[in-house]
Write a structure and sequence with these properties.
The chain has 243 residues and is of the alpha/beta class. Helix content is 33%, strand content 16%. It contains eight helices and nine strands. The strands form two sheets. Strands 5-6-7-3-8-9 form a six-stranded mixed sheet, with helices on one face. Strand 8 and strand 9 form a beta hairpin. Helix 7 packs across helix 8. The termini are far apart.
Length: 243
């Protein structure tokens, strides 16, 4: 374990509650969140605040909030964090090693590596990513290449919807890698995937209703909705398609 807890600084209470990010209820009423397991999942509907918090943590770790680690410097429009400066992170021990994965800006990250390859050579730029451009691989292959080759050092890894490029079979492959890496690293993952959420021993924090609270796997909407759909797809279709 590296990151022990995240909380709002007292000065956050002085911010305009109608302005972003404090217009998000789960952020405005954020309790101290303790991280007690190597893998923590953040769940909630789009806009619930889970990605906002993950981005704020990345900012305080000095990771590139456009995606990457401390040494990856490139810019993507609107990738900065509005929350980071209002957060207090507690460590034991502190680490600067790790990575912030943003599924929505992964293309730009891959392009950033291509620029580095032109400047410094392919061996340096792609050495930690399987030896070749991520653009030369399928979306799913490039994600798994990142997991296999970049997430090798003990550190803190922040992943925002890593399932975006992964088929169900490759999500299972990712879980196998996660099992191996979580022996000496810590992962905080925002996800909608019922497959990933089934990882044994993980803690699940829900952002759907403030304040943030812990759920069991079976209580998550990703699990309950998927299970009900698979059991009775006809009833879902009748409800969705009725005139």
């Amino acid at each position: 374990m590296f990151l022990r807890s995240v909380s709002l600084l007292p000065s956050a209470g002085e911010e305009d509650p109608s302005g972003y990010p404090f217009s998000i209820p789960s952020i405005r009423r954020l309790p101290e969140l303790r991280f007690t397991t190597p893998v923590t999942f953040l769940v909630g509907e789009n806009g619930s605040g889970k990605s906002t918090l993950l981005e704020g943590i990345a900012d305080q770790c000095d990771f590139n909030t456009a995606g990457g680690g401390r040494n990856n410097r490139f810019e993507v429009h609107a990738s900065g964090s509005s929350l980071g400066r209002h957060l207090r992170l507690s460590w034991m021990p502190r680490t600067g090693r790790g990575f912030f994965l943003r599924a929505e800006t992964f293309y730009q990250f891959a392009s950033h590596l291509d620029v580095l390859a032109e400047e410094d050579g392919a061996a340096i730029a792609y050495g930690a990513y399987g030896g070749r451009s991520l653009h030369e691989q399928s979306h799913g292959e490039s994600f798994l290449s990142l997991f296999v080759n970049r997430f090798t050092e003990p550190g803190l890894y922040l992943l925002d919807e890593p399932e975006a490029a992964l088929s169900p079979a490759r999500q299972l492959a990712f879980l196998s890698m996660l099992h191996d890496r979580s022996r000496d690293s810590q992962f905080v993952i925002a996800t909608h995937s019922p497959i990933l959420l089934g990882f044994p021993g993980a803690r699940i924090l829900s952002f759907d209703e403030p304040p943030v609270r812990e759920l069991t796997y079976e209580e998550t909407p990703a699990y309950t909705i998927t299970r009900r759909f698979l059991e009775r797809p006809d009833s879902f279709f009748r409800h969705l398609f009725e005139d």
